Protein: N-acetylneuraminate-9-phosphate synthase
Amino acid sequence: MPLKFELCPGRMIGGNHPCFIIAEIGQNHQGDIEIAKKMIKMAKDCGADCAKFQKSELEHKFNKRALERPYTSKQSWGKTYGEHKRHLEFSHEQYRELQKHAKEVGIYFTASGMDEMAVEFLHELDVPFFKVGSGDTNNFPYLEKTAKKGRPMVVSSGMQSMETMRRVYQTVKEHNQNFAILQCTSAYPLEAEDVNLRVIAEYQKEFPDIPIGYSGHESGIDISVAAVALGAKIIERHVTLDKTWKGSDHEASLVPSELTELVRSIRLVERALGSGIKQMLPCEKPCHDKLGKSVVAKVKIPSGTVLTLDMLTVKVAEPMGVAAEDIYQLVGKKVTEDVKEDESVVPGVVDNYGKRAKC
Structure:
């Protein structure tokens, strides 16, 4: 199974590919398709890779009593939970309209399928990948059916245990090689002490052949940027146009200025991660030429003298002599010319010293 794969047409994730940034619009559009379109454009303008929604076929996601229960929260769009959810749910035709708008804007478009029938619709819609929300992560019949459709999958892991996530991994892996798992804590907003970023490293050990990412519900961007530094290959964050709007997700969402800064900071961190190979870099040469230390004669050393350690010291010297780390290689070797006290011991005056000074 690949550690990197094509999540969307022409867009690889994992390995050394850039972190894939998902702007989770969810239902923060207030049930208004024009607001939804503005949010898609906002996600693109801020630099996100994908605008994502949440699609439900309500009678398949909730039982009748759940839809009929009174919903008196200040966040409610109706007297019952069903009325509330119906207000926020776009029709199939509206989804096609949003998908077309995203294509025109130039951003990838997908949605979390919140039930099996929603997944069927999204499959028909030809979304590039399926997002599995945390509420369905332990829904194994749903996972199996979704995996069998063959589209890439991104699976959140809020409210789950490591034991459950091992089962999730095995269930999806049996049918679909191209998937990623996101560390997630399902609280809105999320307090820092409950984020548990160390799970990213645990997932990387448990599931070394798939990309690992992070879905965050915390305030601000710092924790999400830290997740990228820890190796997250996908970042998902809720976005909004106004944190004061009705809806429980807005408070834990990023406004456009925050999303822009998140993207900028992630790209900066990616540049800073480097190759992992420790070596002197070209940008360090001016500092090395100015302040790099090399071997200097502590005393006058006549030609023909066999060098001992007490004859040598290390200083910033002009010209630069034998590299400081090679001082022990000089012991027991003979100098072929006189070296004055406090002069550089250059490679050319040491017999059988074949290593040139580093630069």
